[in-house]
Amino acid sequence: MTLTAKHLPLWQWITVASVLLMVLLTMLWELWLSPLYPGGSWLAAKALIMLLPLRGLLHGKRYTFQWYTMFVLLWLLEGIMRAYAEQGVGRYLALIQVVLVVVSYTTANLYAKYSAPSRMVKQ
């Protein structure tokens, strides 16, 4: 299978779904499943920060996909760090976050690459 511009909608929706799943994961993780402090943690607010690129991703803005690939690396670093440092449920949640970030990063990069005007030639 060759990668072309016809796959753009698929990559866009996988990226958006990954972002929404990361927001949901963060909220569940920091408020109920394995918060850093009993009763929840203010770290749940980082889920709101993840919503910043959502509008551009939903509208297929190439520039948003480009900067999002740098932005999401913060969540990758956090996931790796917490997978190393935490035990039990927290470690598994961190590994799920790492997987979601890798999927999101990959599909966002593919979208940004193949949505370039020079690649949008009709075949």
From TrEMBL:
Membrane-spanning parts: 12-33, 39-58, 65-85, 91-112
Species, as recorded: Chitinibacter fontanus
Domain of life: Bacteria
Name of the protein this chain belongs to: DUF2069 domain-containing protein
Pfam families for the chain: DUF2069
Keyword vocabulary terms for this entry: Membrane, Transmembrane, Transmembrane helix
